[in-house]
Amino acid sequence: MSATFSADATLAARDGLPPDARRWAMLSVAIGVSMASLDTAIANTALPAMAAQLHATPAASVWIVNVYQLAMVATLLPFAALGEVAGYRRVCLFGLALFTASSLACALAWSLPSLVAARLLQGVGGAALMSVNTAMLRAIFPTKLLGRGYGYNSLVVGISFAVGPTVASLILATASWPWLFAVNVPLGLFAILLGRRALPHTPRAAHKIDLTTAVYNAFAFGLLILTFGDAAHQASWRRLLPEAAATLVFFALLLRRQHGHTAPMLPVDLFRRPLFALSALTAACTFAAQSMAFVSLPFYFESTLGRSPIETGFLMTPWAALVAVMAPIAGRLSDRYAPGALGGIGLVMLSSGLVALLLMPAQPSVLDICWRMAWCGIGFGFFQAPNLKAIMGSAPPERAGGASGIVATARLTGQATGAALVAYCFMLSASHGTRYALALAAAFAAVASVASFARLAVR
């Protein structure tokens, strides 16, 4: 096995890896992606427990979640650009190593500042993993099986994000919050050892990384997410105006700095391709819709219906379970049918499922909740893999890193936007916040379906 790995990993994958090597390489990527995706979700559930043990106020403890998202969004595109220059394998292994080490630091944190610092590093490691994982799949799977590969990737991301609250609840029911992070350590070490042997080398671009551009990018996207969050919590104009102005300044500096570059870090060259732009819009709107549902529904289940956190986790499970069923099926179908049609159909289902959740009876039964969650899961699972294939297929091979970075940026920006909008909905009305959020989520999914079907008219 070792000899096979070494022989395969030393070659740039011309059209994917042989079947045995492909499975092990995919396993390494999947472990890394699942850890990064899970940690996006589980911290929300564990936040009260962490705040209590660290003697932190609820307002201060929110930084445990925010700093992770900020670090990921701010560094995704620089790592994607680095992957094109240094090789996706190196960036992936670096991300695995940093994420594993910082997970151990999170588990050993003794105060809120130490945990926030560790979460910052964990977010950077997660960004390195997520920025190149879809580009890595393009090297692992042959062209004729790319849809299947993206289906597996969609399954891992969707399941990890969806079952995060359930996993966190189960761990907290039997152990303390540091174990939420400690479980990553053995998984990360295994993924690193496996990745060193199984992940293929890829061709490297001739251009160099511009550190000034990377700094502008980090500030632009970091300030954007910070402004969204503060606006949702109705911060004062004295705070919002400087943040918004600084965001615009750094985006202007970023665009000016990379003007004329053959492979810009913020890949505006790819957005000139209608199929790529529509696919990115579809992804951002869909993940915003999912985020609004997954952030708001637990409040409804626990506060309105009186369910326990563990019961809430299991009520969310049908969505995750049907994503698991549908993602590989949709991936295989995307090798034969237009991603615009497949994604559009799935998003119509997602939007109708969110409307069905909005229209639930005042005292819904478990069956009332579960069939609606399952319908949403089918729609979401039907969208992901075809959309991934559309984004990556609309970019030239040498720009796979930039396309992969946009995949992750669209997902995380959508999730952060959805979470901010939920906060705003609850600021408007504590009792009707979930209803407002579900209505917005259904609207976002409907816009995403229109964008997806629009791809049928472009190339």
TrEMBL record:
SUPFAM superfamilies: MFS general substrate transporter. Residues 25-459 form the Major facilitator superfamily (MFS) profile domain. It holds the Pfam family MFS_1. GO terms for cellular component: plasma membrane. Keywords: Cell membrane, Membrane, Transmembrane, Transmembrane helix, Transport. The chain crosses the membrane at residues 24-47, 59-79, 91-110, 116-140, 152-173, 179-199, 211-229, 235-255, 275-301, 313-330, 337-360, 436-458. The keyword Transport applies. It is a multi-pass membrane protein. GO terms for molecular function: transmembrane transporter activity. Its main location: membrane. It is found in: Cell membrane. PANTHER family: BLR6921 PROTEIN (PTHR42718:SF46), MAJOR FACILITATOR SUPERFAMILY MULTIDRUG TRANSPORTER MFSC (PTHR42718). This is MFS transporter. It comes from Duganella vulcania.
